[in-house]
């Protein structure tokens, strides 16, 4: 019986300011984002896509003009420079991965 009294007398730690109020009308008209660089909305999504693709990877941007101009085979073989390695097995033995011990395998399998 005392537990029921304690549970009924409990007050939440969160305190709300005032009563809940639902706005009578909400304005759903589209507005530009406050951080928008232009501060204007695009005419339509299709118009936005046309403008956006002019500067994207499908457009004729200046940085992509040399990409794909030559075949990969014509660029020559790919070899690492001196002191560079493409795979760990090419490194000296001291940098290779150590084999798993039975105790480590058992620890992983048992969680």
TrEMBL record:
Keywords: Mitochondrion
Single GO MF descriptor: oxoglutarate dehydrogenase (succinyl-transferring) activity
Region spans: Disordered: 20-42, 59-79
One GO cellular component term: mitochondrion
Localisation per UniProt entry: Mitochondrion
Primary residence: mitochondrion
Taxonomy of the source species: Eukaryota, Fungi, Dikarya, Ascomycota, Pezizomycotina
Species assigned in the record: Penicilliopsis zonata CBS 506.65
Record GO biological process: 2-oxoglutarate metabolic process
Membrane-traversing stretches: none
Protein family membership: Belongs to the alpha-ketoglutarate dehydrogenase component 4 family.
Name used for this protein in its record: Ribosomal protein S36, mitochondrial
Pfam families, per database record: Kgd4-YMR31
